[in-house]
Amino acid sequence: MEPLILTLKMDDPSQEMFDRLREEHFPKERNFIPAHLTLFHKLPGDREGEISSTLQALCRQQESFPLIATGLVFMGRGVGYRLESSTLPAVRKKLAEEWWPWLGSQDRQGFRPHVTVQNKVPPEEARVLHRGLEKTFSPFRVRAEGLLLWRYLGGPWDLVKYYELQ
């Protein structure tokens, strides 16, 4: 069964801004998913019921919360926006502890929340975008409204369910 991906549901204006940047700067042939902040890259598809139950319980107790875009991240062959929050790492930690036996190495590593707007381009192209975005960057707020569970389809993703925060 195809793996699952968990991302943060952002407020609509922030999502639209990141999608616009991604559409503008991401290679067209690779841009078939929306901009996203990934919490978990590969959850077992055969555990969807258990994952869903955990997410429902968490979202019944967790209020929506703010994040701050604090800067840009140069990723060698791409660029992203760094997002910080006092709440998000705690939410992710709680889920990671619950799902630890299922997590692969990528999801067991340190959590560095970001939204990628460019990837898989030559390093010089990424440097140019990074410099350009840095010139006009100032911190801004993003609101976490929920969690999105996706099924990975070998490239594209299919939305399984939206879990709304309180």
Topology:
Elements: E1 4-10, H1 12-25, E2 38-43, H2 48-61, E3 65-74, E4 79-84, H3 88-99, H4 105-108, E5 114-118, H5 123-136, E6 140-152, E7 157-164
Helix pairs in contact: 2-3
Give a brief description.
This protein is an alpha+beta fold.
Task: Outline the structure in words.
35% of the residues lie in helices and 33% in strands. With 166 residues, the chain is α+β, with helices and mostly antiparallel strands. It has a domain at 4-68 and 88-112 and 143-164. Strands 1, 2, 3, 4, 5, 6 and 7 form a 7-stranded antiparallel β-sheet that branches. Strand 3 and strand 4 form a beta hairpin. The longest helix has 14 residues, at 12-25. The model has no long low-confidence stretch (mean pLDDT 98).
Please describe the structure with a list of short key phrases separated by commas or semicolons:
166 residues, alpha+beta, 7-stranded antiparallel beta sheet, 5 helices, 7 strands
Please give the radius of gyration in angstroms. Answer: 16 Å
Spans of at least 5 consecutive residues whose pLDDT stays below 50 are none
What helical percentage do the residues reach? 25-40%
- Proportion of residues in extended strands: 25-35%
According to DSSP, the number of beta strands is 7
Computed structural class: alpha+beta
Largest sheet: 7 strands, antiparallel
Distance between the termini: 31 Å
SSE topology string: EHEHEEHHEHEE
Mean pLDDT score, rounded?
Answer: 98
Tertiary shape? globular
The total count of helices amounts to 5
